[in-house]
């Protein structure tokens, strides 16, 4: 297993992690920004107001994107398992 191959596998792993986490983190960021903007405009400073909608939106996003996430992770895992013979050379 050469250094180039290890770097390629690591790069593909990082790209996969970013692809899987981006929709969930993005929704959490957008909901948090919207609620923070609402709190700034109305001067409501309640901590639970930000927590509950973010948790609900992130859980809904996980539920909606879980088939896609599982598909991406299975493809990545299958690729890793199929390249095992190349790793031992």
Report on this structure.
With 89 residues, this protein is mainly α. It has one domain (3-84). It has helices spanning 3-42, 48-82, 84-87. It starts with a helix and ends with a helix.
Number of DSSP helices? Answer: 3
**Largest β-sheet summary:** none
Measured by DSSP, the beta-strand proportion falls in: under 5%
Q: How much is the average pLDDT?
A: 90
Strands, total number: 0
SSE string:
HHH
Label the overall shape: elongated
- Percent range of helical residues: over 70%
**Distance N to C terminus:** 6 Å
Low-confidence stretches: none
Radius of gyration, whole Å: 19 Å
Counted up, domains total 1
Q: Which class best fits the helix and strand makeup?
A: mainly alpha
How would the blueprint of this fold be written?
Elements: H1 3-42, H2 48-82, H3 84-87
Helix pairs in contact: 1-2
Descriptive labels:
89 residues
Short note summarizing the structure:
The protein has 89 residues and is an all-alpha fold. It is built from three helices and no strands. The longest helix has 40 residues, at 3-42.
């Amino acid at each position: 297993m050469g250094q180039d191959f290890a770097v390629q596998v690591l790069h593909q792993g990082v790209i996969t992690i970013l692809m899987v986490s981006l929709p969930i983190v993005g929704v959490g960021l957008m909901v948090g920004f919207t609620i923070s903007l609402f709190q700034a405009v109305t001067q409501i400073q309640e901590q639970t107001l930000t927590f509950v909608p973010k948790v609900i939106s992130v859980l809904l996003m996980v539920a909606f994107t879980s088939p896609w996430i599982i598909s991406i992770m299975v493809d990545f895992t299958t690729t890793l398992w199929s390249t095992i013979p190349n790793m031992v050379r």
